[in-house]
Known about the structure:
Chain A is an alpha/beta fold. Helix content of chain A is 39%, strand content 23%.
Amino acid sequence: MLKEERQQFILNEVRVHNRVLLTDMADLLKVSMDTIRRDIKELHKEKKLKKVHGGAISLGFNNYSFQFNEVYSLEKKSKIAVKCISLLRNGQVLLLTGGTTNMELARMLPTNLTLTCFTPSLPVANQLMSKPNVEVIFVGGKIAKDAQIAMGAAAVNILNSIKVDICFLGTHSIDLDEGLTEFDWEIVQMKKAMMQASRKVIAPVISEKLNTKQRYRICDIQHIDMLITELDANDDKLIEFRSKNIEVL
Amino acid sequence: MLKEERQQFILNEVRVHNRVLLTDMADLLKVSMDTIRRDIKELHKEKKLKKVHGGAISLGFNNYSFQFNEVYSLEKKSKIAVKCISLLRNGQVLLLTGGTTNMELARMLPTNLTLTCFTPSLPVANQLMSKPNVEVIFVGGKIAKDAQIAMGAAAVNILNSIKVDICFLGTHSIDLDEGLTEFDWEIVQMKKAMMQASRKVIAPVISEKLNTKQRYRICDIQHIDMLITELDANDDKLIEFRSKNIEVL
DNA sequence: CAAACTTATGCAAAAAAATGCAAATAATTG
DNA sequence: CAATTATTTGCATTTTTTTGCATAAGTTTG
């Protein structure tokens, strides 16, 4: 049996059963466990399955991917969240994108604040459920499994029909020249619609994301009304942003 | 069983029941309590659940309303869910209401089944996220905190614009004369719209709910295509339903 | 506060992974 | 075709991970 055949067989097995045991495969395919181990290693590197102790599992199986970022820079994100919250007043209508920064914002919202929140993000919506004085309105649509966000024409349509006070726009990358950029085209559409739907656009960004770029552009830097980072307000990195007429906190 | 699988199972259990007992998991998964304890510890560190004395609880979810029904009649509900799932075929488009029975249905969906699922229920949508072959489309709108379901004009509008194969309509009360009834007016509107949006309406109902009534009516009993209960198909209680031309499983 | 239960810790056995090496097989080239 | 080179595979050894158990320490509850 060819190596290719064997790997295809393993992949298929993973697709059907969502998992394979190393021992089973070695047994079934009549090769040593080392061989299977090497196969799985390769397939893992090609991102066709996930290697785990004792075998492999399907990639789609545990799609919690956003939770992986969870720990990373959490402290900075809480800092940013606090700054964001300080801007809020009772009765305001918000629009929250997904992402861990907005998750943190949702988590830290004081329970006595009365707000209306639109969001297309399942985790954010869930988080907001525990705030008794927050009215949650979910922007529906096809849910992207990786980001757990509603996307597509339906979601964009709904966004086109609303106007909120403040949009907290989580972003992957922000750059003085390139503006706000994303790696996923559909997300770009969503974020464009969200900016349109909001009187004021605030971008909470951890400093690592400053001056980085992705493939697709959401908008120029001028279209952001305010930038919130965990850095001190007079940090060098922020001077240029301020000079472009963007409020920095 | 792989470690990954076990942890996924625990996570899933937490998602559905909002909590797990260490002892239950050890028992169910046939491993020592130490192993479960270590699993929970890891998952806690990854912020996927919250470790507590004696087990773990969900972090994203606060279900005041769910927790009650959750335990109650769970076995019957799984039984019903199994029957429901047996009706499904690859490629079908479903519409799922909220409620614990549909939660159970979503939880038990085999991972290899390819479906498109519309739902206005946050917990159900969440549950469906873990099914790699299910396309989830959230019917957005204002979220009612108690039921964690989108409601209101926006949601009803969306429902009016779709047509699906099967609707699994969770119901509070069903009665031969009064038909399907609810105690909340808004929910009635949602359910009416859902029935309209579906070619086939299936009502999964635990036997306790048979021949009970509430204040507001959704529809006559004739508008249900099929009734699924945990009872044996020739149970006395069901004869009359069948005589009204409703298929009973 | 004391009994019942839960957690933490260290330890050892078992299972699996990584590594280096050699034989077998396949591919390439003069 | 023969010789060389590269790839694949299995085996032995070491290292790491996983798991269960025993014991001690901490929590919960009546």
